[in-house]
Amino acid sequence: MSKRVITFGEIMLRLAPEGYYRFVQANNFGATYGGGEANVAVSLANYGFDAAFVTKLPKHEIGQAAVNELRRYGVDTSTITRGGDRVGIYFLEKKTSQRPTNVIYNRAGSAFALATADDFNWDEIFDGATWFHFSGITPAISDEMTNICITACQKAKEKGMTVSCDLNYRSKLWSSEKACEAMSRICQYVDVCIANEDDAIGIFSMNPADANGEEKNAYIAKELMKKFPFKMVASVWRTETSITTFKLQSMIYTEGKAYYSKEFFMHILDYIGAGDAYCAGLIYSLINNFDPQKAVEFSNAASCLKHTVSGDYNLVTVDEVMKLAFSDAGNEVQR
Description:
By secondary structure, the chain is of the alpha/beta class. It contains 11 helices and 15 strands. The strands form 3 sheets. Strands 1, 4, 9, 10, 11, 12, 13, 14 and 15 form a 9-stranded mixed sheet that branches. α1 (36-46) crosses α9, α9 (274-287) runs antiparallel to α10 (292-306) and α10 (292-306) crosses α11. The protein is globular.
């Protein structure tokens, strides 16, 4: 199978106070670029894939800085449309102890938010590609973007491509009702769905309490596969084990069976992009024909390593993920 993957979404400028300062304390903000689908493209480029990211960015220097950041990590930026006036921004206040993460979006009116169907020639974009990935954040940006996602999915299916979607529900972007209506249309074209408990509740009003003793992630996967023609549903989740430590585990459900990864106990440096790292690990695994157990272990390890990397991107190699997933030598000094 060709290893050319197309991802589609918005790359934004992330502004975060130093360390764990609150917004109202901050005199300086660290600036990095990222966004769900861009993060996936960077991971796959790091893994040696031909990964292209599709978006719309202004022609000015800030738009170019975002393009340059993607190029730095080997992402194909030739499919990016240039135009518009603004790059989307989000402000991030990091979680610590009992204080949750706080994200404030400043993305209204961005070049991508105002993009139209005419900005994307999917026949050209998909030339030579076999996989298309996007998240539920992208159609949440506008009604036009919902329709663009549907058009892209239809074109991908016409070309025989595999389509994956991380549901990634964001209540600050759209209501549950609107998300359900849009994602119900989009999911008809999706082969591989990445969904956690919050997505299932927020978008499709599922109640894991209805599982009647069945493991809730497997229950959610089965219920989703009743509604949509998914070939696989995958999920990754964190569980707090103390104020400062977390447990990470994931699951793949396919052909009527759930496969669970081993658990990692970890401290977190930066958790933004950990779900995207999981998606990239899953895409890498499936294109390379890993069996489900090997795929869930690789994807979970990729997500685990992202928690150790500052910024949105998972700057790790295949060898590093493999060692963590399948070797006991992951924490030894690499000499």
